[in-house]
Amino acid sequence: MHLGNAAQRSCSLSWQDGAGMTQVEDAVAVNNHDDCLVFACSAEIPPGTFVYIAGRRSSQTRTSRVRLCTPNPDRGYTIIVELGIEMQDPEPKAFLLPTEGTDASM
Length: 106
Fold this sequence. Notes:
- The structure is a single chain.
- The chain is mostly beta strands.
- The protein has one domain (6-88): Pnp Oxidase, Chain A (Roll).
- It is built from one helix and six strands; from the N terminus they run αββββββ.
- Strand 5 (61-72) and strand 6 (76-82) form a beta hairpin.
- The radius of gyration is 14 Å and the shape is globular.
């Protein structure tokens, strides 16, 4: 898999935090291997968390599990996600964002 230029590597990561709230952060793919992708992200995402990955410049999306999250002084956090690990539920309801004017705590 070729990562391409910075615009092509830009994506968003969405996940459900421990309180059940959907979090969304911008990320940049910085490396790839046969079984994982490596992202630079400003947020800490605990290992074992399922993340929804959406490309900024493409229609490519996928759901993967965080394998490792380590602090990185230059980029916030280095996030490694496993390829080939998909969520059991084909509809990732946890990733729906609240609409404007609604109570996000519901």
